[in-house]
């Protein structure tokens, strides 16, 4: 039987979870994010193959990147709202099924138009997964270690990317790689049956049904999100993510192609550089998450963003000056280390928004920011005709600078307790 402190709407918090429950929740969050990333990144690893098979240009493939990223905004808004309404665990499984099925069916696309449509379907699921998984994690985790847990989830990108690199190099056709992208659907079944639901969300639902909540907590989450007190958080959070996502997608979407064709490293050399980059990012995510608990979310984000800004400037200068391949690759590695700030978003947004609107608010900021940034890869594809891929990728430095300015105005509520009704 639960104690009074565990069932009171105002006091249910992370302490109500057992160690086993936390273990299952972080496993679900890590798996969901890693699987999502594999399905998202596989296109960038095989962009040239897709273009060749469908007989389309580099700019056209850039348009696919843009289309799937724009779809993430739709999925983020929709599934964030659904997660506040129907529960974190249930909606998390929905999002995984959608992006897995969309990616898997892409392997069967008979033409480029159908392929683009299926990438958008996958994007809708991808957009909803991030905030849903992080909402569940934030509500279950200890406030003092929430940032480190977020860093561990973000670090799932490394094995996902490493697997993606391996698959892209091992399969006889890009279609086989996309077929493998349907595998996450099986993991969604496991999550649905073994992962516990958020206790804060369950208590909120009970209290709402019993009429124990004030009128504000009974409002629809989307309507409440745009009340006066939350609008500033939404706008700043969305702009923050836009800067981060633009800078990331302009270089991650095209870097495999740039390494192969721009720096002429070949398939083997490109794989090696990408593996090293992924390993560097793994370390940076864990470090940024831990430092977020120690320094606060804002200071940790700004520190890693500053490193990346310097590296982006160096990358742009090296490209313009036709510097050695080694110098360009070193700049790329430092850019990869600067990505640590992505480990901050999950915990930061989870602490900014109250339980009734946590998934809606987090997902809106992250997915809409990512959706607005979706023009980045397409822009690089267009710029490549005049400035080369390296020149287009260098535009990421402006987005990093904009992100740093925005971060200074966003509230930091690091380490606060998350309860059912706030």
TrEMBL record:
It is found in: Cell membrane. Residues 25-414 form the Major facilitator superfamily (MFS) profile domain. The lineage of its organism: Bacteria, Bacillati, Actinomycetota, Actinomycetes, Pseudonocardiales. Its main location: membrane. This is MFS family permease. It comes from the Bacteria. The keyword Membrane applies. Keywords: Membrane, Transmembrane, Transmembrane helix. It comes from Amycolatopsis thermophila.
């Amino acid at each position: 039987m639960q104690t009074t402190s565990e069932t009171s709407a105002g006091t249910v918090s992370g302490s109500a979870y057992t160690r086993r429950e936390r273990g299952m929740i972080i496993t679900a969050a890590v798996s969901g994010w890693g699987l999502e990333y594999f399905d998202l990144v596989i296109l960038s690893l095989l962009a040239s193959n897709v273009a060749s098979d469908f007989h389309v240009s580099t700019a056209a493939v850039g348009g696919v990147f843009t289309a799937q990223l724009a779809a993430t905004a739709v999925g983020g808004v929709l599934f964030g709202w659904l997660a506040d309404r129907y529960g974190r665990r249930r909606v998390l499984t929905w999002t995984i099924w959608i992006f897995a099925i969309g990616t898997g069916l892409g392997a069967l696309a008979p033409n480029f138009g159908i392929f683009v449509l299926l990438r958008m379907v996958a994007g809708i699921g991808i957009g909803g997964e991030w905030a849903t998984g992080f909402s569940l994690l934030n509500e279950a985790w200890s406030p003092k270690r929430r940032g480190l847990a977020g860093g561990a989830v973000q670090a799932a990108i490394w094995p996902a990317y490493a697997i993606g690199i391996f698959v892209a190099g091992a399969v006889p056709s890009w279609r086989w790689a996309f077929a493998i992208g349907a595998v996450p659907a099986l993991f969604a079944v496991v999550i649905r049956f073994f992962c516990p639901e958020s206790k804060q969300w369950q208590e909120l639902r009970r209290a709402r049904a019993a009429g124990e909540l004030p009128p504000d907590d009974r409002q629809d989450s989307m309507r409440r999100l745009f009340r006066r007190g939350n609008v500033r958080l939404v706008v700043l959070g969305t702009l923050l993510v836009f800067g981060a996502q633009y800078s990331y997608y302009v270089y991650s979407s095209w870097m495999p192609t740039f390494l192969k064709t721009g720096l002429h490293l070949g398939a083997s050399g490109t794989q090696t550089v990408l593996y090293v980059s992924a390993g560097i990012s793994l370390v940076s995510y864990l470090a940024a998450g831990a430092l977020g608990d120690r320094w606060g979310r804002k200071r940790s984000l700004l520190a890693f963003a500053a490193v990346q800004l310097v590296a982006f400037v160096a990358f742009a200068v090296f490209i313009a000056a036709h510097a050695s391949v080694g110098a360009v690759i070193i700049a790329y590695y430092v850019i990869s280390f600067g990505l640590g700030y992505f480990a901050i978003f999950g915990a930061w947004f989870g602490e900014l928004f109250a339980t009734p609107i946590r998934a809606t608010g987090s997902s809106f900021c992250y997915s809409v920011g990512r959706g607005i940034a979706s023009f980045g890869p397409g822009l690089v594809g267009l710029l490549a005709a005049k400035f080369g891929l390296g020149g287009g990728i260098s535009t990421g430095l402006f987005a990093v600078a904009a992100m740093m300015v925005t971060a200074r105005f966003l509230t930091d509520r690091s380490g606060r307790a998350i309860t059912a009704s706030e």
